[in-house]
Amino acid sequence: MNRRLIIRDEAEADIAEAARWYHDRTPGLGNEFLAEVRVAIQRAVKDPLAHRRLRRRPEVRRVLTTRFPYRVFYIIRPDAIVVFRVLHGARHDREWRKSA
Fold it and tell me: 100 CB contacts (<8 Å, ≥6 apart)?
Protein backbone atom coordinates (compact mmCIF):
# COMPACT_ATOMS: atom_id res chain seq x y z
CA MET A 1 0.00 0.00 0.00
CA ASN A 2 1.27 3.43 -0.89
CA ARG A 3 0.90 5.89 1.94
CA ARG A 4 1.54 9.58 1.54
CA LEU A 5 4.18 11.27 3.64
CA ILE A 6 3.26 14.09 6.00
CA ILE A 7 5.98 15.96 7.87
CA ARG A 8 4.54 18.09 10.66
CA ASP A 9 5.80 21.59 11.35
CA GLU A 10 7.41 20.45 14.62
CA ALA A 11 9.51 17.90 12.75
CA GLU A 12 10.46 20.46 10.09
CA ALA A 13 11.60 22.80 12.88
CA ASP A 14 13.62 20.01 14.54
CA ILE A 15 15.33 19.22 11.23
CA ALA A 16 16.07 22.86 10.39
CA GLU A 17 17.48 23.58 13.86
CA ALA A 18 19.79 20.56 13.78
CA ALA A 19 20.93 21.31 10.21
CA ARG A 20 21.81 24.89 11.22
CA TRP A 21 23.72 23.62 14.26
CA TYR A 22 25.78 21.21 12.15
CA HIS A 23 26.37 23.83 9.44
CA ASP A 24 27.60 26.33 12.06
CA ARG A 25 30.19 23.78 13.22
CA THR A 26 31.33 22.72 9.76
CA PRO A 27 30.02 24.30 6.54
CA GLY A 28 28.33 21.63 4.45
CA LEU A 29 27.70 19.29 7.37
CA GLY A 30 24.15 20.60 7.68
CA ASN A 31 23.43 19.41 4.14
CA GLU A 32 24.86 15.99 4.97
CA PHE A 33 22.58 15.85 8.00
CA LEU A 34 19.56 16.75 5.83
CA ALA A 35 20.44 13.98 3.38
CA GLU A 36 20.77 11.47 6.22
CA VAL A 37 17.37 12.41 7.66
CA ARG A 38 15.82 12.16 4.20
CA VAL A 39 17.19 8.60 3.84
CA ALA A 40 15.84 7.62 7.27
CA ILE A 41 12.39 8.99 6.43
CA GLN A 42 12.39 7.11 3.12
CA ARG A 43 13.23 3.90 4.99
CA ALA A 44 10.21 4.51 7.23
CA VAL A 45 7.95 5.16 4.24
CA LYS A 46 9.22 2.11 2.36
CA ASP A 47 8.71 -0.31 5.26
CA PRO A 48 6.96 1.43 8.17
CA LEU A 49 6.50 -1.73 10.24
CA ALA A 50 10.21 -2.61 10.18
CA HIS A 51 11.17 -0.10 12.85
CA ARG A 52 10.78 -0.15 16.60
CA ARG A 53 7.25 0.39 17.86
CA LEU A 54 7.01 2.69 20.86
CA ARG A 55 3.24 2.94 21.27
CA ARG A 56 0.22 1.01 20.00
CA ARG A 57 -2.44 3.76 19.76
CA PRO A 58 -1.70 5.80 17.90
CA GLU A 59 0.93 3.53 16.45
CA VAL A 60 4.20 5.39 16.98
CA ARG A 61 7.48 4.06 15.65
CA ARG A 62 10.97 5.41 15.28
CA VAL A 63 13.71 5.03 12.74
CA LEU A 64 17.32 5.90 13.52
CA THR A 65 19.71 7.82 11.34
CA THR A 66 23.00 6.02 10.78
CA ARG A 67 25.65 8.73 10.80
CA PHE A 68 24.09 11.28 13.12
CA PRO A 69 22.60 10.43 16.55
CA TYR A 70 18.99 11.29 15.65
CA ARG A 71 15.66 9.51 15.94
CA VAL A 72 12.80 10.11 13.51
CA PHE A 73 9.42 9.54 15.15
CA TYR A 74 6.39 8.76 13.03
CA ILE A 75 2.77 7.66 13.26
CA ILE A 76 1.37 5.03 10.94
CA ARG A 77 -2.07 5.92 9.63
CA PRO A 78 -4.00 3.86 7.08
CA ASP A 79 -3.43 6.56 4.46
CA ALA A 80 -0.18 8.20 5.59
CA ILE A 81 3.10 8.12 7.46
CA VAL A 82 3.23 11.19 9.69
CA VAL A 83 6.68 12.31 10.84
CA PHE A 84 6.07 14.39 13.94
CA ARG A 85 9.49 14.82 15.62
CA VAL A 86 13.18 14.42 14.76
CA LEU A 87 15.18 14.44 17.98
CA HIS A 88 18.77 13.99 19.05
CA GLY A 89 19.37 10.68 20.78
CA ALA A 90 20.22 12.43 24.05
CA ARG A 91 16.82 14.15 24.26
CA HIS A 92 14.42 12.54 26.69
CA ASP A 93 11.44 10.52 25.44
CA ARG A 94 9.06 13.05 27.01
CA GLU A 95 9.88 15.33 24.08
CA TRP A 96 8.21 13.09 21.51
CA ARG A 97 5.45 11.86 23.79
CA LYS A 98 3.95 15.32 24.19
CA SER A 99 3.87 15.72 20.38
CA ALA A 100 2.30 12.40 19.36
Answer: 55, 58, 60, 73, 75, 84
